[in-house]
Amino acid sequence: TYDRDRSGVIEPYEIGPMMTDAYKTINKSFTPSKADIDSYIKVLDRNQDGRVTLPDIEQVVMRFLLGEDYGRYSVKETVTTVTYSPQVQAQLDQARRIFQRFDVNNSGYIDREEVPAMIRETYRNMGINYEPTRLGMISYAVFCLKKKNN
């Protein structure tokens, strides 16, 4: 765990190893500067209280998984007023079937416990045997958001 002092807050001195590990997951070597760490903290501190906590990191991951509008929509909502072309409708139907396959607990969300199976299956379909770790998923999500915000 990166919260070495178990304070519930990931302090700036604890962020450097997190960043280094995030880059390691994509086979890159990286030693963050103070400016890099400050930038990373800005990305992670979702509620802008000056602290990085587990809820902040969870929000970053949710934003990564659900996109920019993660806070506005629930997967349980259904839009009934939009009509799509048959091709688009077929793709949406396929996406819904895939979603239902991985939403094992039928919560209407892909929960953090369900994400590894989805990633594992995606890689398997590409012919790659990959076992995702929770840290790897979080690190990659944070890395992608940082790249997206630059």
Question: Helices and strands: which structural class?
Answer: mainly alpha
Proportion of residues in helical segments? 40-55%
Q: Please, what is the average pLDDT?
A: 77
Termini separation: 27 Å
Count of discrete alpha- or pi-helical segments spanning 4 or more residues = 6
Shape: elongated
Number of strands: 0
Q: Biggest sheet: strands, sense, closure?
A: none
Q: Which series of helices and strands comes N to C?
A: HHHHHH
The unreliable regions are: 73-80
Taken as a percent bin, the fraction of beta residues is under 5%
Radius of gyration: 18 Å
Essential attributes:
single chain; 150 residues; mainly alpha
Overview of the structural elements:
The structure is a single chain. The protein is mostly helical and 150 residues long. 54% of the residues lie in helices and 0% in strands. It contains six helices and no strands. The protein has helices at 12-24, 34-44, 54-66, 86-102, 115-125, 134-149. It starts with 11 loop residues before the first helix and ends with a helix. Residues 73-80 have low confidence and may be disordered.
Brief digest:
The protein has 6 helices and no strands. It is mostly helical and 150 residues long.
Provide the fold topology:
Blueprint: H1 12-24, H2 34-44, H3 54-66, H4 86-102, H5 115-125, H6 134-149
Helix pairs in contact: 1-2, 1-6, 2-6, 3-6
